[in-house]
Amino acid sequence: MSTTDVVQTALITGGARGLGLGIARRLAADGKKIILWDINFNDFDVAQAGFTPILNQCVDVSDQNAVQTAFGEALAVTGKIEILVNNAGINGVISPTWDYPIDEWQRVLNINLTGIFNTCRTAIPQMRANGYGRIVNVASIAGKEGNPGSSAYAAAKGGVIAYTKSIAKELADSGVLANCIAPTMAETDLLKQVTPEFIATIKAKIPMGRFVKIEEVAAMVAWIASSECSFTTGFTFDLSGGRATY
Ligand SMILES: NC(=O)C1=CN([C@@H]2O[C@H](COP(=O)(O)OP(=O)(O)OC[C@H]3O[C@@H](n4cnc5c(N)ncnc54)[C@H](O)[C@@H]3O)[C@@H](O)[C@H]2O)C=CC1
Ligand SMILES: CC(C)c1ccc(C(=O)O)c(O)c1O
Asked: What global pTM score does this model have?
């Protein structure tokens, strides 16, 4: 039996709600075993989710030790983890850079960028050893274009795009592929962290005139995370309703 014939396990960070939950739901529907990582499972409900994860682990991705411990526990349950979706992220405060709180800058970078380094550094050795893996990092169109007031978020997401290109090259001959997605705005709890004016400004930039749907993001991730995606690595897949044409 080849790696692609067996039931694969997908680990999704920030999977308790929003895009992460939508991605997990789709991968579960596609027959994957699901492990969810999050710092807050308060609203997570199996009936509402529509699938039963084999493991829900309370993990802060910015904590390298916690990531290593939780990953070891997850491997002990599943044996292998073929798919890693690095989705956990925060916006942080909206403020011009000259007033941007220094601790908030650090917090956004720690979660949105270093968090991905932490999980990749931990998960990649077993993927390399198995000769197979699919890593999908959730960036943002903000990482390509920047948004005023959102410098920490945009810098972190730009970093995710560049980081993914680097690890893809490191892994190119290993059977492990690493790609990014760069969605524009989706209606999730994340929008509670930004103002209505900010949301309206972003919507006005989208030629299709609407936000991306969670299911659209999940469908793209499902393909990138599949064995059908076999010759694309280090790439950033846009979900921007026509906004990004580069
Ligand atoms: N909603 C949007 O408009 C867009 C979101 N994104 C990205 O998509 C990803 C998911 O965002 P949403 O679902 O919209 O947000 P959300 O706020 O609905 O969900 C994010 C999840 O990440 C978890 N999380 C936060 N910090 C964490 C940490 N340190 N460790 C583990 N889990 C943590 C939260 O508890 C939450 O469950 C983020 O990386 C975000 O930057 C990208 C483009 C657009
Ligand atoms: C909700 C987050 C902060 C956000 C805001 C705006 C854009 C965009 O310019 O499309 C994003 O992609 C985001 O992730």
From this structure: 0.97
